[in-house]
Design goal:
This protein is mainly α. It has one domain. It contains ten helices and two strands; from the N terminus they run ββαααααααααα. A two-stranded antiparallel sheet has the order 1-2. A hairpin with a 6-residue loop joins strand 1 and strand 2. Helix 1 packs antiparallel against helix 6. The chain is globular, with a radius of gyration of 21 Å. The two termini are 22 Å apart.
């Protein structure tokens, strides 16, 4: 199989190999949860595969957007006249507008779901709460939680990198930070909203009043919510650093 340069880490890998390794890594994490449930007869960590599934959603969206962009670029390179009869060129303009609208919609949905990828890092909190079980060694729970956190982080970094390539393909330091830090800041805000305010990505549609109300209160009373803004600031900086290190090889 033809080798290709990995778009995120720079090493030489077989084309399509990264996706297979990600799937195997996710299966390994889920098998750890299944083994723990079987051994303890407890559903303590059954929510982790669901969180990982939510982390996959933005990655699949960004992958779809990337493929659509490549397909559109190919069509433009071949020329509209060669692909469609001359009488349908107006329809081609309408199709182009539809693709732009579809891309914008995809990016909005991606932005709503991408915090789920980085949210899994905060599931490490469960190592210190009531989820511990004396029948399970501490090292097992540590590996279980770290495996999910690692998968979530990788999915988040790879998905964000795909979107960065779509929106700012030629940006270099410090220009890329115009894209990067605002996205990571929104990720940190989304993680706070999910972890502490207990909202989900779809609450922007199903429960927008309460969600926006809580955000407005945070903005209107920053001193009252200083812990929240401190967490958002520190977490956004940490995510930016991790992303920058993992994606430094363009």
């Amino acid at each position: 199989m033809e080798s290709a340069r990995h778009p995120f880490f720079g090493n030489r890998v077989a084309a399509g190999g990264t996706g297979r390794v990600l799937i195997l890594s996710a299966l390994f994490s889920c098998l750890l949860v299944a083994a723990r449930i079987f051994h303890t007869a407890s559903l303590a960590f059954v929510f982790m595969p669901w969180n990982l599934f939510l982390a996959w959603v933005p990655y699949r969206i960004s992958t779809w957007l990337t493929r659509m962009d490549k397909r559109n670029s190919l069509e433009e390179g071949l020329g509209e006249a060669r692909l469609r009869p001359r009488g349908l060129r107006v329809g081609g303009v309408q199709a182009a507008r539809f693709r732009v609208a579809l891309r914008i919609a995809g990016l909005i949905v991606w932005l709503l779901f991408i915090p789920n990828s980085y949210y899994i890092l905060t599931d490490l909190y469960h190592l210190a709460d009531g989820h511990r079980n004396s029948r399970v060694p501490e090292w097992f729970d540590l590996i279980l939680m770290l495996s999910f956190a690692w998968n979530g982080l990788l999915l988040g970094v790879m998905s964000t990198r795909q979107v960065e390539r779509l929106l700012a393909p030629d940006a270099s330091f410090p220009g890329r930070w115009v894209f990067l830090y605002p996205v990571m800041w929104l990720n940190a805000l989304g993680v706070y909203i999910g972890r502490y305010l207990r909202f989900n990505s779809w609450d922007i549609v199903t429960n927008p009043v309460d969600l926006l109300g809580d955000i407005i209160r945070m903005i209107a009373h920053p001193l009252r919510y200083h812990d929240a803004w401190g967490m958002i600031l520190c977490y956004s900086i940490l995510l930016t650093i991790m992303y920058s290190l993992l994606s430094k090889n363009r």
